Amino acid sequence: MIFRQVYDHTSSTYTYIMASGHGREGLIIDPVKELADTYLTIIEQLDLKLVRAIDTHTHADHVTALGDLREQTGCQTYMGKYSKADCVSVYVDEDEIIDADGIKLRAIYTPGHTNESFSFLIEDGGPTMVFTGDVLLIRGSGRTDFQGGDPHKSYDSIVNKLFTLNDETLVYPAHDYKGWTASSIGEEKRFNTRLAGKSEAEYVDIMNKLNLPDPKLMDEAIPANLACGNIRQAS
What we know:
Layout: E1 2-8, E2 13-19, E3 25-29, H1 36-45, E4 49-54, H2 66-73, E5 76-80, E6 90-92, E7 97-100, E8 103-109, E9 118-122, E10 129-133, E11 136-137, E12 140-141, H3 151-160, E13 170-173, E14 183-184, H4 185-191, H5 200-208, H6 218-225, H7 231-234
Parallel strand pairs: 3-4, 4-5, 5-6, 10-13
Antiparallel strand pairs: 1-2, 2-3, 7-8, 8-9, 9-10, 11-12, 13-14
Keywords: Hydrolase, Metal-binding
Domain Metallo-beta-lactamase: 12-175
Organism: Methylohalomonas lacus
């Protein structure tokens, strides 16, 4: 299996490129518009054909590269069924499988950060991996104060869905702000200070008191991402 993790320093976003082998079809998760050429270079150098491009949710801190990648490669774009983006090729529902030449991702509806957030699980052909978007972060969780976010739904998604996965499942979020690159379900159950040993009420209280500023690019990013990164269309 080919697996590459690419970091955008401006938004602290992780993008993931995967394929079952060289010369094979591949997929990308949570691509950033400014790094589209970087992804295409990696894909070319690894002799891959990009066929699936996925966003875990409508991001507020960067503009997606879904549209650019579809235009340049002919790939299909994917988001969860509750997304309001009008240029997505395929909207996936709970437990649907996205297959790219043997790399199979199972969609898991995990609202809370936004009301349309999905996570994606790989269970076959190697280590179990879950791509959690912004719902579950490494030693943290995504804010719940805009885009239909809800701390109760966030708790439910994490504790009653993601935390039921095997403890050895590797966790790959869409963001990290401290330089961590991966975690595991077992680690987050034990060491995530917002969740470990916390009741739902305690978690909700923590999330409601975060008092975070809005993402700097939110006013630009959200409308652009509803158009798959087409800023001109969004404006």
